[in-house]
Structure formats: structure tokens, C-alpha cells
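The protein record quoted in full:
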Amino acid sequence: MAVKVTVGPPVITINHGSTFLVTELDGSITNASDQGLYSRDTRYISCSQLYIEGEPWILLNSGAVAYYASRTYLINPKVMTEHGIVAAGTLGLVLGRTVGEALHEDIDIRNYSTGHVRFNLELLLRSDFADIFEVRAKEFTRRGHIETEWVGDSQRLTSRYVHGDFRRALVLSFEGHDSKALYGNGRINFTVDLPPGAAWHICGKYDIREGDMVSRSPAGCTYDCEHTGTAQILARWKEATTQITASNEEWYRLYRQSVEDMAALRLRADDRHSEELLAAAGVPWFVSVFGRDSLIVSLQNMTVYPDFARGTLRRLAELQATEEDAYKDAEPGKMPHELRVGELAHFKRIPHTPYYGTADATILYIIAWHEAWKWLGDDALFSDYEQVVKRCLRWIDEYGDRDGDGFQEYQTRSDKGYENMGWKDAGDAVLYPDGSLVKGPKALCELQGYVFDAKRRAAAAADHFGDPDFAAKLRREAAELQQRFEERFWCEDLGYYAYALDGEKQQVKTVASNAGHLLWSGIVRPDRAERVVRRLREPDMWSGWGIRTLSALHPAYNPFSYQNGSVWPHDNGIIAMGFKRYGFAEEAAMLARDISEAGQYFLLNRLPELYAGIERGPGTFPVQYLGANVPQAWAAGSVFHLLRAMLGLDADASKNRLYLDPLLPPWLPDLTLRQLRVGKATLDLRFWREGTVTRHEVLAAQGDVQVEARDASGRDE
């Protein structure tokens, strides 16, 4: 019998919105690690450990019971007290934690011995208030000072950090216990007195203070986490999203977990539009507003929760650059890469206030804007963001094209900026065939495809709203770009497109996954699409667990690296959409199968940000990248892109139309979508295989919407 390996990091992570907690499996937060309780780029707890008479408790088992709650089961070691010996394993401790805007912690102890016990329970707690950038870099400098205050009468511990006008605090108070706590030497001490069979309970409420703003601990205890406010939010979220039933249980679990991961990563767009949401990029390092990530997640969610686009478009429009700022790599019309609010950002020691070092977010904004209109059918999206989009288009032409040759290039101007500004933004991600770093400015292939798509979409919008001259201009520019692109980027000897043009406008003939994005954008000449697909299917690119970021034949290939041979689920989802667009539906379904089967190995069927690009074979399993973000928004969203590719879903809500071109593979012979939104209408749709043909039927519909079968390949916007 085959043994199923479960893959995942040896930590527990729970989160909600901007707040998250990372601990060891035993619930402890160890010194000199990157674990802790974080909120809005500041670490509020840097060490937390429970002791019985100075000895650590023994772990039995632990895990997350929801994305926002965890439970840890522990027993005692043998300890000596002044009242006698407490035998090992006679005390059971359950540590429950729930994250909302802050943290609620429950400690439950039961005496399973036949004798009376009395012992000291100690909680070691430290707060360093470190900026998340410094935690990640493992280079922390304390610039302010920390004050700790214990008030015995109110059983309250307050730790404050003050650095000028940057003020943060953690306030811990206790409820539900009879014994009075004492504080000393960085430890809170309780005397626990338990007759045989008796239980002891305490609630620790950790409130977070950011300046004058207070985030309160969740009210309910963890054992009742299904009835907390956070649980109710999750239930409402599931009601608002497209749900599925499927004949393939693993695919169903993967989809269900991805929907829950989206719930875990929701952020409010702003205080004025608190009902509008956008997605944080991922836990632990990217719980913030990101341009590229939030836009791609919005695109992934069009068939699941299209309203993500509303919050994303609004928030990024508010952050659109209005002037040049070399330190922040900002230019008029440019969309941000990332916004941070920690200590380093507050004092502008980093440029992330926001930072604009992204070459693609401005282009993707136009694509997401048009796609949101197609699914939501809201003309106000056009009127609200028309000028924002026009500023994006001007940036593309005036700043994105740095040398006036008609291609998009990037190069940082900031001394703290990013070397690479495409989605592969690691410093070593853009390489010549010999493995050396490409010299800039760099014109990545996918950027040209994004611009082609964005201008055609903007043209479609101009047509709809009665500006045919502007539409014709945009289409002409897109056609001219496509012609230039084919002339300069196609490599006949490779049967593939160049990764990029370097600073000397020479082709970078490195085989990487980026060309798959060209299929998604539609810039690829139809007669060359098959060769691109064929190249991506070669074993050096297709690992069996998905398509690698870099060919295994490249000298810099490393399956365990960040972007030089690893597999990124979102990358594969975009490529699958491209396969479908050019009529390679079977290949799209093969990718969906590979990602789905990889997902079976990860804890909770939760796709990580990336995993190793090792070759699939007997006895192998996907290996999670060390330091991968989990949950991660566009990894979860890849499932939605893969499903959309298999079903060939598209919408024109302005005409009350849903288009489909389904091809279910043998491993997924039956699938039902429920509450799929098109404009103001909702649909329940069933798909099933009959032989090699996929059938469909409308089970229920509310509102005005027509379903039409349409060939998804070669679709024009």
C-alpha cells in the first residue's frame, strides 16, 4: 500500500486581515526566530513559552482548526514541587488561539491523576516591536525604547514601544481564573491548584495599540470559534462566493480551501469603503497592499468573487503616482508595487510608502478594469476610473517605454529599489543562457503581451462608450506592437520567444515560463502558438507537478530556488488560460491535473506560493519552498484560473451573456457551479462528460442572463 506524504512547514500559522500568528507546533514562539504575532508590519510578540515549574510542556498534537484558530494538545513532564511529585502525563493542557484584529488565547488544564496537585504555571512573554522587513532580513536594530508595566490589581501587562511619533503597544489582560497572577523576570506566574478530575481555565486577551487606534482581542474562546465574529464573516464570505460540487474529491477540497484562503487574506480597501475588499499577497511576509498581486488575484476571482476588483481598483487608484520620485521609483500614472506602514516605512528608511518598483502593475490595472466590467456589467467602473486608466496609458507610452522603441523596459532609479520589476522579481531571476545576470534596462517578453492586451481592452471600452477615434488609435498601436514583437522577440532556433531584450536590445535566449503569459495575453501569432505550447511541454519545462519557471537544461537551474526552476501555481494558472485561448484545451486540463495532484500533498490541500520543480516520478512528492508564503493569494487563485480554463468561461454582463467552452478531463467527469455571478444575475451550472464530449445544463438562474456556447480559442476582446 502506498504511503501518502503530507508536506508543509513545521509551524502553525493563523491569520485574519492584517493580523497573523506564527508559532512552533507546540504553540511556542522561540527567541531569535521569525515567528510571532504581527499586525500591520510590526511584530508584537517575539517570544512566548509555557512552563510547568520551569519545565516546558510536552507536545502531543496541534493544528489549525480554521484559518483564524488553532489548538495545541500538551501533557506535563515529571516535575518536583514543594507539594510533591507530579507524575508525567497526568496533566492535560489545551492551548487554544483565535486571531481577529488581535489575539485571544485560552489555556485549559485538567488533572487526570488520582491525587491533588499544586504547581506553578509560567508564561514567558517578550515583545520586540520589530519591523517585519528587519525580521525577514534577520537584521534588527532597536531605535526606540520599550517600557513594560504590570498592574497586579487589574491583572494587566502592558508593553509599549516609543520611537518619536511612532508608538505601538501590546496589552495583555486575563479573565476566567481564580488564582491571582504574579509578574517578575519577564514571566507571568499562576498557582494552579487542582483536585483529581478538576479543570482550570484562563483567557488571555492580547489587545494591540497602534498610536491611538486599538484593536481588540476576539471575544469568544477558541473552543467556540465556530460561533465567533470571524466565523460569521467566513460564513458570509462563502455565501457570497461561487461554490462547487465535483466528482473528484481532491479537486473539490483544493477549490474549497482556496476559497477559504481568499477569506483569510481579505483586507479592507480603505476606511471610507470598508465593505470593499482587496487581497493581501500572503502570510507571513506580504500581508499588505500589493499592486501586481492584488490585480492578478482580482482577475483570478472573476468567476468566484468579482467584487475583489472593486476594492483593488479603488485602492490602487488612490495610490497612483502623481509625480516623479526616484527614491520610490515613482512616475506620474504608475501603480504601486507595495505599501507598508511599519517603523521603517514611517520614517522613510525604506521607499515603501508606497514603493512603485513594478513594471507590470500599471498595465495589469487596465486589464483588470476591463475584465471587471465584463463580469460585473457596471458602467460606473468605466466612469469612475476612466481618467485613472488614461493616466496608466500615458505612463505606458511615456515612462514604461524608456527609450522610445515601442517596447516596455524597466530599470530601478532607487538605491533601495528592486533590480527586477516583473513578477519574477528576485535579483537573480533574469538570466542569460550562460547563467549570468541580464544587463538592463530589461524588456521582458510578457510586458509586451500585457500592453497588447491592455490597449485592445481599452479600445473595447472606448467603443462601448462612444469614442471610436480613441479606440481605433489604441487598436492600431496594439497591432503595431504585435508586429514589432514578433520581429524582435521570436527565436526561430528555439521555436520560442526570447525571455527579454537586454540593455543592448539583444535577445535573451533563455527558456523560461514567461512566454506562457504571452498566450494568455493573445499577442502570439496563431501559427507560432503550437510551437510555444510544445516547448512548454518538453520535460525540461513540464515537471509533472506543473511547469517550471526555468528550463532544467539551464546552467542556473535549481528546483529548490525561488524563481530559477521552481513551480509557481499562479504562473501555471495563467499559462493554462493561454493554452485554452489558443485551442489547447487538453493541455490546460493536464496542467490543472498536475497542480491538483500536487495540492493533495500539502497540508489542508492548501497550495503554497511555490514548490520545488523536481521531476515527478515513482516515490516523489512536491516539496514546499523554504520560506514560501502560506496562505498565498495568487497561489489559491490559481485554482480558479485552472477551472475557468477547463470550462472556457467568459462573460459580457453588459449584454447579459455568459459564454462557455467546456472540456472536462476524464479525472473530473462531473462538476457543478453554484451562485456564479454575471452582472446582477446568478447561475447554477452543471457540467458532465459523455464519452469525450462535455455537456452542460443550467440548473437554476436568478436575473437576466443567457448562456451561450462559444469557441474560446482566438477570442478577441
